[in-house]
Amino acid sequence: MSNCVSVVLGKNVWSVTYTTQSICTLKGSTVELTCSYTYPSGYTVTTTLWFTKIYNEENYVSLLDDPDYKDRVKYLSNKTNGHTLTITDLRESDSATYMFRFITDQTGGKYFGSPGVTLSVTDLQVKVTTTLLSMTLTCSTTCTLTDNPSYIWYRNSKIVQEDSSPSYSVYFKTEDSFYCAVNGINSPAVCECD
Fold it and tell me: What pTM does this model have?
């Protein structure tokens, strides 16, 4: 969840702190990012935004205005609870570094938090390792999924294993089809058919 909670300080302190610096999640899923920010007393925040693109020093593109995120970004804010950013239906092209920026009512009163949150979006693939009498199926991704997900293995569309193991073994040759799933997102099916 992207909750940016503001803290007004008496000193001249500007900061953005992210709860996590990297997230790996699945294509088609939803992600939420979290940060907190501080600024000196005497300022009023007038604009807040999350961005991945900067066209020049003063032209930051809010995700709300970025056509690559059209209808997939929800961004809510209020003075009491801060901010919430949610990106739905993630695509591999959403892999990027996300940063938060805020602007105040005074000249020069703006700040963005670097280095931001690195989001990696991956899909599920089944890798097959065969021996003479068995095969091991491994549900793999290009990065390590955040939050230690549970894996569900399907054989001919029926659940055969549910646990935290990304691997499933079959101890005889078969022409059945197999696929894995994480949080309702399925890998393509594989079949060791001759």
Answer: 0.84
